[in-house]
Structure formats: structure tokens, C-alpha cells
Amino acid sequence: MQPAQMHFYTYDGSFEGLLTVVFEAFDRKAWPTAIEQEHLAQPSMFGDTIAVVTDEGKAARVWQGLQKKLSRSAQQALYHTYLWEQPKFEQLIFDYIKLVFESKISIEDNFAAPCVLQVQQAAKQVHREKHRMEAFVRFQKAADDLFYATISPDFNVLPLIIKHFEKRYADQRWAIYDTKRNYGAYYDLKTVSFVNLELSPQQRHAALADVHKHQEEDKYQQLWQVYFDHVNIPERKNPKLHLRHIPRRYWKYLSEKQPRQLPT
Questions:
Q1: What is the DSSP string of the chain?
Q2: Residue ranges covered by each domain of the chain
Q3: pLDDT tens-digit map of 103-143
């Protein structure tokens, strides 16, 4: 008995590209042994490598097929799993979709299937990170009145938090830049667009230089710190609870956690 043929798929890293991989795998009846982004993929000495070019039409057909068989929350969970970005997330998404199309009944509550349980767990982690970013992002005001913030979340939640800030700061120009993934979102008072900046690692993580700060920015930061001092009553301190709600890795986003500036 001959061993099963191994199929290694590569794609451009986009969600549409991953859905195109699903289309091609079903069309060829060649189930993937591994799926990798093309810039990360290593040549394989075993099996065949299939380089998939993103096709929006094919991706749309896969997504429309999923819409007929999945609830909206399950579709969202799949997309959140894509934003999860953990090792082998592509294979996890493929296994889930394959199970959906091969089942005559809904698989959403079939937690005996490993891929169903893992997708739900991944989606919950991403959803939790989304809410934390919405709560913890603090903007600095630049000299040109642009409000600017940097983030480096555990998962790629920038696409998920845009609506929150678009509604909350509808009358202000703002930009949020993910220094971990080197892209950002810019709101110009009308629409949000994604941007990439050619910055060194030091520049990506740096706060606004004094020359670029708005003259009121230091006052805004001090205001946050005073507010935090007033609500953080010593008698009610609960360090364990505080860390559970605001883990240390998020402190870099919070003005109230920055070193105090001495009055001048």
C-alpha cells in the first residue's frame, strides 16, 4: 500500500487567499498536509507544493457556501481564528470548513470534533483581546491635531477595534499602529484606511517626540494619572484582581501607568 500523497499549499496570507486554498483543495480533491504563507514557506522534498493565487471569485463562493450552513456567530468565529495567527491556524480553519461541507447537519456544537472546539477557543481569545485593546488604548495628540496610538496585541485585532474608535472619535483624526505587525489604521474624519510605514523597530515603539507633541499632550497624560489616583482608593486595593483585569503587558498603553512628571 502506497503512502498518501502529501500536499503543501502556499498563499499570500490574506483571508481571501486562505478561502481560495479551500476552493482549490476541494476542486483538486487534494487535502492539504500543511498550509503556509508564501513568505514563510520552506521548499518541501516530499510531496507537491501548490502555490495558490488569491481569487476573490473563488473565495466568495466558499464564503457563500459557509453562509448557507453556518450561523453568523460561527462565521465570525472562523474569521477570528484567522486573526488568531497561532501556529497551524490555517490547517485548523481548513479542517473546520471541510467538516462543515461534509456534514449534513450543523457541526457548530459538535465539540467532540477537535477543530470545532479549537475554533471556539481561539475566537474567545481574540474576542477578549479585542475588548482589552478597546479599553486600554490611549492616544497622544500630535502637533497637527492627529491623535496617535501604538499597539502590539497578542492577536491581530486591529481590524476588529476600528468600529469602536470610529464611533467614539468620529470628530477627530486618529491613527492606530500595530507595531508587532507593522501596519495601522488611519481615520480622516470620513473613512478608515489601512497604512504601512517604513519605520525602524525603535521608531515603531517610540512615543511621540516632544517636537511632534501637541502642547496640551502632557496635561492630558497627567489628567489620566490624577483620575487613576482618585479612583484607586488604597483601602480597596486588590492587586490580584487588578492584574487579572489589566495584565502588565497592557500597562504600556495606559497613561496612568507611566512615570509621573515632576511639576515645573
A1: -PPPPPEEEEE-SSHHHHHHHHHHHHHHT---SEEEETTT----SSSEEEEPPP-HHHHHHHHHHHHHHS-HHHHHHHHHHHHH--TTHHHHHHHHHHHHHH-SS--TT-TTSHHHHHHHHHHHHHHHHHHHHHHH---EEBTTS-EEEEE--SS--HHHHHHHHHHHTTTS-EEEEETTTTEEEEE-SS-EEEE-----HHHHHPPPPGGGB-TTHHHHHHHHHHHHHHHS-GGG--HHHHHHHS-GGGGGG-GGGSPPPPP-
A2: 7-129, 137-214, 216-264
A3: 999 999 999 999 999 999 999 999 999 999 999 998 988 87
